[in-house]
Amino acid sequence: MLSTGVMAVFGFFFWIINARLYSAEQVGIGTTLIPIMTLISSFSILGLGSGLI
After folding, report:
1. Using the 8-state DSSP alphabet, how is residue 22 labeled?
2. What is the distance between the alpha carbons of residues 37 and 33, in angstroms, rounded to a whole number?
3. What is the rounded distance in angstroms from the CA atom of residue 15 to the CA atom of residue 19?
4. pLDDT per residue as tens, the chain (53 positions)
5. Alpha helices in 1-53 (DSSP H)
6. With a threshold of 0.85, does the pTM exceed it?
7. d(CA 8, CA 2)
8. Which of 34, 43, 37, 40 is nearest to 15 (CA)?
9. Does the keyword Membrane apply (predicted)?
């Protein structure tokens, strides 16, 4: 539980720093790419368990 809170705080400050260092377009692209990569990796794991058996 503590690690979840710590990671949330780090993530918050990560995006605050990025918003100050990069343009809104670049931050938007980064904000879009992270969930897309998570979705693709989740889809790739779906058949892995049955494929290994």
Report:
1. S
2. 6
3. 6
4. 899 999 999 999 999 999 999 999 999 999 999 999 999 988 888 877 666 66
5. 2-21, 24-45, 48-52
6. no
7. 10
8. 34
9. yes
